[in-house]
Write a structure and sequence with these properties.
CATH topology of the largest domain: TIM Barrel
Strand content: 25-35%
Largest sheet: 8 strands, parallel, barrel
CATH architecture of the largest domain: Alpha-Beta Barrel
Oligomer: single chain
Shape: globular
Number of domains: 4
Mean pLDDT: 93
Strand order of the largest sheet: 1-2-3-4-5-6-7-11
CATH class of the largest domain: Alpha Beta
CATH superfamily of the largest domain: Aldolase class I
Number of strands: 32
Radius of gyration: 29 Å
Length: 655
């Protein structure tokens, strides 16, 4: 049951199994979650028992469960990884999301493998290779344009997955070493220190300050809401929401948001189908602005955009609510564009700092032409709120009433049934067929008696059979195939219905067919290059064996393998600070008096005691953040000694 070309899959994150179940109820066709170890989110691990229970819950809806094992691994860790994979397979997990090619050289069960975004899939050649060596789904780089996705889809038959929402790493995924170089915490080992969210000062090659203490490597959050149909037409079949650190409210809200968008698309485009079963009914109004975000961008989907950075703050500022019109001794009056409630979380900008306010009490004073006038009594004393004055713009980053709705039951999901009641030898048989074509039946031994009131008897039987209550099912059709109207006690028909529903749930689970691992192509695929730099993240001997088998001759060790390293690109990114500050030579082209004055000279980026050189590779339109490893920074022992080549930087083939 691999993802078929006509199926559209909504893939949601889960920090815990509980959040995973809610993701499914809110419309996820698949959920990805961390296992006990080796997930690229260090603090989002889950025991096998919890994953097993989530698997059973998901398969009732034909949703799939993927487990992330997308770190690079020491030689000493590979056996533990192998054992964990077998445990996950036995727990019923449908696929693993991985980046370490050493895993393909282990004795693995026939479980599907998905190529993580850390595999840095930006080219047709890379995508074809990964499909040919046995990956069943490919997570493309977030930086790809719609046109590039179309090119890959035209030549690759492996299902393509793409991030449609959530936080953005500024670097190409898997190509960021700044955390390890500065702190010993490796992003490729699941422990990123998030250096991209720090404030930086940018200077040009003459020492002139271009930007001071701005969050220059912090991106706005990904939001492809407006591009979903274009992504479908480009060939994306799995639409992935970022957020394995996110809370329940975020997952409910964002999953429901994309479920509604995809359902609307499926209604218009009958050539496509949902990848899982059931109909989702959302009991609140999803709003992508109401849960954590740093602003919205569609990144590079439609080409380079000018405003993709969240330079002012990496925090959640929220939705603009109104403006302060009066200051009181213990309160402020605000003209707002929406109602307020006690407990709302508010904030405002004071110079470069976001200041938070808890609305202990909110009183509506009335309406005006400009909006609603509210008096806010903050938890904080007015004297300790710096820069707050008449004219200050107030944002709301916690809508108390809206969040309260999410704490309650906020969605349900039902699989449609056709129920048929007929006589059998010794009583009645209730047969069920569901929307997936799965069939079951249950019998009840009853002494049938003719009904005195035929119409009332039939009406009662139909009503009783349709009462599916809190089950996962809904009755689309009830048919009575009886030789004559019978009187059946309500207790008897209710018991038959309950037994039949339980039997059908069991039948659905028994009929589930786990997707099989894709067989590698024959003859053996050849890797697009004959040499690999540290950017390939080869951290163990098995990964080295894998690449040698596929034609690679020179293999550099992963950055994390080295006890010290000179200046190399610590981050490779499509985000360009020259472009952000209108210093790009391409921007200057054709501008009178500017052309020829702007050169791609190195720039300097400073945060605290960390200094980096920015170099600009204009042909692929990339920025390299160059620096050296801090002395004594190695955070864990290197893999067993193997004759790796030195740490060198080979330029990749052009995209």
């Amino acid at each position: 049951m691999s993802l078929l070309d006509h199926e559209l899959e909504l893939l949601a994150p889960a920090k815990t199994a509980e959040i995973g179940r809610e993701a499914i109820l809110h419309g996820a066709d698949a959920v990805y979650i961390g296992g006990p170890a080796f997930g690229a989110r260090h603090n989002a691990s889950n025991p096998i028992e919890d994953i097993s229970s989530l698997v059973e819950y998901a398969h009732r809806y034909r949703s799939r469960i993927f487990v992330t094992m997308n770190t690079i691994m020491h030689d000493s860790e590979l056996d533990l990884a192998r054992k964990q994979i077998w445990q996950l397979y036995e727990a019923g997990v449908d696929a693993l999301i991985i980046q370490d090619m050493g895993l393909l050289e282990l004795d693995l069960p026939p479980i599907q493998l998905h190529a993580s975004t850390q595999c840095d899939i930006r080219t047709v050649e890379k995508a074809k290779f990964l499909g040919d060596v046995g990956f069943s789904q490919l997570v493309l780089a977030r930086e790809l344009t719609l046109d590039k996705i179309k090119q890959i889809r035209a030549e690759v038959d492996t299902p393509l997955e793409y991030f449609v929402h959530g936080a953005l790493c500024v670097a190409f995924s898997g190509q960021c070493y700044i955390s390890h170089a500065d702190t010993g915490r490796s992003a490729n080992r699941g422990d990123c220190s998030q250096a991209c969210r720090l404030p930086y000062t940018l200077s040009d090659n003459q020492g002139r300050v271009v930007a001071f203490e701005k969050h220059l490597l912090s991106m706005k959050d990904n939001d492809q809401s407006a591009n979903l149909e274009a992504l479908v037409d480009a060939g994306i079949r799995s639409f992935k929401i970022e957020g394995r650190y996110k809370d329940m409210g975020y997952v409910k809200n964002i999953t429901a948001h994309y479920r509604l968008l995809l359902d609307e698309l499926l209604e218009r485009r009958p050539e496509f189908a949902r990848a899982a079963s059931g109909r989702t009914r959302v009991l609140f109004t999803p709003d992508v602005d109401k849960t954590f975000h740093r602003g919205h961008t569609d990144y590079f989907a439609n080409g380079r955009q000018e405003d993709i950075g969240a330079f002012d703050s990496p925090k959640y500022v929220g939705v603009e609510l109104g403006t302060v019109v009066r200051m009181g001794g213990d309160h402020i009056d605000v003209i707002t564009n929406a109602p307020m409630a006690n407990g709302d979380g508010l904030n405002y900008m004071n110079k470069r700092t976001t200041v938070g306010i808890q609305a202990n009490k909110a009183e509506k004073l009335g309406d005006s032409e400009d909006g609603q006038r509210w008096r806010i009594f903050p938890n904080e004393q007015m004297a300790v709120l710096p820069g707050l004055k008449v004219g200050t713009v107030i944002h709301r980053n916690r809508d108390h009433q809206w969040e309260a709705a999410l704490h309650k039951k906020s969605s349900d999901r039902h699989v449609g049934l056709q129920l048929t009641l007929a006589e059998n030898e010794g009583g009645l048989r209730l047969s069920i067929i569901d929307e997936d074509g799965i069939v079951s039946s249950s019998d009840a031994a009853l002494a049938l008696q003719p009904a005195q009131n035929a119409e009332q008897a039939e009406s009662g039987l139909r009503a009783s059979l349709a009462k599916l209550g809190n089950t996962m099912f809904v009755a689309d059709h009830v048919e009575l195939k009886l030789s004559q109207p019978w009187f059946v006690p309500s207790s008897a028909i209710n018991a038959l219905r309950r037994d039949a529903v339980a039997a059908h749930e069991a039948a659905r689970l028994a009929a589930w067919q786990r997707p099989q691992r894709k067989a590698p192509a024959e003859p053996r695929a050849v890797y697009p290059d004959t040499q690999l730099s540290y950017l390939a993240n080869v951290y163990n001997e098995k990964a080295r064996e894998f690449y040698h088998k596929h034609g690679v001759q020179l293999i550099a060790a992963a950055y994390e393998s080295h006890e010290e390293a000179g200046e190399v690109p610590l981050m490779i990114t499509k985000h360009c600070l020259r472009f952000s500050f209108n210093l790009c030579p391409k921007q200057a082209k054709g501008v009178q008096g500017v052309q020829g004055q702007v050169k791609a000279e190195p720039m300097t980026l400073v945060s605290g005691d960390h200094t980096y050189t920015l170099r600009f590779d204009c042909k692929p339109c990339e920025m390299h953040v160059v620096g050296a490893m801090k002395p004594g920074i190695l955070n864990s022992p290197p893999p067993s000694a193997v004759p790796y080549s030195p740490l060198v930087f080979h330029r990749k083939r052009p995209n």
